[in-house]
Amino acid sequence: MTQALLTPADAGTTFAADAPGTLFRFATAGSVDDGKSTLVGRLLHDSKAILADQLESVTRTSTERGFGGADGGIDFALLTDGLRAEREQGITIDVAYRYFATARRSFILADCPGHVQYTRNMVTGATTADAVIMLIDARKGVLEQTRRHLSVVSLLRVPHVIIAVNKIDLLGYDESAFAAVAASVRAVTSELGLGAVHVLPVSALVGDNVVDRSPRTPWYDGPSLLELLESLPVVDEVETAIEAFRLPVQLVLRPQGAVAVALEDADAFRDYRAYAGQVASGTVRVGDSVSVAPGGATTIVTGIDFAGTELTEAFAPMSVALRLADDIDIARGAVIGAAGTLPESTRDLTAALFWLDPRALTPGDRTLVKFGTNTVQAIVSTVTGRLNLDTLELEPAGGLEVNDIGEVGLRLAAPLPVETFTENRRSGAFLVINAQDGATLAAGIVTGSGAR
Amino acid sequence: MRAPRVNAVTTAIATESSVQAAGSHRLSQLDVLESEAIHIIREVVAEFERPVLLFSGGKDSVVVLHLAAKAFWPGKVPFGLLHVDTGHNFPEVLAFRDATVARLGLRLTVAKVQDYIDDGRLRERADGTRNPLQTLPLLDGIAAGRHDAVFGGARRDEDKARAKERILSLRDEFGQWDPRNQRPELWNLYNGRHTVGQHVRAFPISNWTEYNVWRYIEREGIELPPLYYAHEREVFRRDGMWRAIGPVSEPRPGEAVETRTVRYRTVGDMSCTGAVDSDAASVSAVVREVALSTITERGATRADDRISEAAMEDRKKDGYF
């Protein structure tokens, strides 16, 4: 056994700012000119996450462009619009990731563009988000793009939805104007089956209810945007407790002779074999009975390793390596799950696709699909329909075009233990990939499995 | 949870529980970021033929190497290292680089900008900085090693262009990044498909901040080149930064030389990397300093990023990492 080579005298000191240390991911969404980048800039600025040199650079550019008139002012959008074309055109092209922390939590923010052609970026941001902030221009109310984005949020099961009714200052902080917009938004969210939705009046430009509660909206008694973000639960914490254990195997750790140099007792690891992966859902403990797909064999977990540390349990989203009691044929692409909980593998499934590629999808197309660590060929057997975003109903369609959300039937080249996205957001999510050029064509979620 | 069985990786053993205690199903942000990075590193190793890690001896690449060692424990890190040496690197960083490689028994390939200047393939710039000159030796090194995946320690909080880059970033045969045509990155499902001539840059610590990196270095007891910590050095003032005296960094007339207590927040090319006034001589002091800093890491120390608002974007489009 090797002992620590060096322990810095001051190691282990924790700094107060890091103390609670949870990480919360959220995305912004909305239509063009709803003020998303301004809101993000305001959030960063008022939570003091913008450093002096960044602020100086943005202030200089704002002044050069005459932003805010003669008395100056800061164009907060410049903080996140990082690409040359974005700054030149005053638009946001791609998801920008920003990082900031408060005394209570650290945040990863995906600032997503609102142009219809960039819906794919909205989907990108939403798949990893604990919460989505949907911006609505108080003067315009619910637009087609609002409905589209809320549909995406609903289908992707984003745990928390925050509706920020922005530019409330331009309506003179009028309560009834806010109430009207809030009512029309709630009509859409309840139609979509979105559960708890937080609606709040904000002004990104002025800062009302962004970080601090505003005295100009005395009729609103809810939390500010930042207070909400600091208090909502993280998705993994909520779901770990209720979902069954799943670990898609990334690779088999079997060093044989090639053990790390730091290990003096290399011989002890000559027969080492463990299955490495990130826990997708649930919890596993040493001694648990687990099943493996494909094959369906059942065995016992004899060890959970994390880089030399033996754990008694692991839960989502930890990256670990499992040792098992029996020598079972397990390779990359296998799924280890709590015994008796893995679904029967199937080659046929129905799925909702968020079509993200300019090339249209037609029935009969051959693609690749990636589930967890498994990539297999697939044929699109049917296109059942396309979601009409006005009626929120499925209507007949001969195919899917970019930004369409539709339902399809897929036939896989090999049976996989897929679950519906409603049952398990990790096992039920997949990529559709173009086999020729490797492009990611669509985000897919399983709606049903088995031959129909 | 039992005590660590062996020393995992690059240096000292974890100095505090790296994974939360049983019973609590809440991971600290460092644990979440660590597991995310390990997942990415394993995916790339599983899906690509010949990955390589860009390793300079700088703190971010050291952290990625540490994560790789943890990802494949008890096996060796299953890929080699590549360093593009500008010829202007700090000698103590190169010494650290070589010592780390030797200690872990890894394979290091060095591509030298100086060789390209000597034989005329590259020409020295008027401003003397060699950072933009790294691109050609980098692309040649990737081609020569037939690498289809290149790990880097870039972080999205470093720069506005990096803030927009995917974790797996597809590059064409010229190494170019096309920011307007990036693949959507969905859930934790990374698409590593590529065609002949293309390769992928993989950034496992994309979501880490400078503060996260330092907290992790503290927690894991990771060794770094000594110039990251406060020390006395002969410096002179230029462009609002302290520049070290060296063969490629000579004071001009009127630039007074003085001895100050400084440290480096980044360790790049000596000709364009500045030191900051600091008395943070230990890792915990640096953690505290970074937490309280009011200036970004690159803003404080990199002259090359001050060339224009889009300096990093332009370099990346040309194949830079």
TrEMBL record, chain A:
Keyword terms of this UniProt record: ATP-binding, GTP-binding, Nucleotide-binding, Nucleotidyltransferase, Transferase
Residue ranges constituting the Tr-type G domain according to the UniProt record: 21-237
Pfam families named in the record: GTP-eEF1A_C (PF22594), GTP_EFTU (PF00009)
E.C. number: 2.7.7.4
SUPFAM superfamilies with a match to the protein in the record: EF-Tu/eEF-1alpha/eIF2-gamma C-terminal domain, P-loop containing nucleoside triphosphate hydrolases, Translation proteins
Protein name: sulfate adenylyltransferase
Organism: Cryobacterium algoricola
A Gene Ontology molecular function term of the record: nucleotidyltransferase activity
UniProtKB/TrEMBL annotation, chain B:
InterPro entries linked: PAPS_reduct_dom, Rossmann-like_a/b/a_fold, SO4_adenylTrfase_ssu, Sulfate_adenylyltrnsfr_sub2
Record's keyword terms, sorted: ATP-binding, Nucleotide-binding, Nucleotidyltransferase, Transferase
Record carries keyword Translocase: no
The Phosphoadenosine phosphosulphate reductase domain, residue ranges: 51-274
EC id: 2.7.7.4
Enzyme class: transferase
Gene3D superfamilies: HUPs
Molecular functions (GO terms): sulfate adenylyltransferase (ATP) activity
Superkingdom of this protein's organism: Bacteria
Family under the similarity heading: Belongs to the PAPS reductase family. CysD subfamily.
Protein name: Sulfate adenylyltransferase subunit 2
Organism: Cryobacterium algoricola
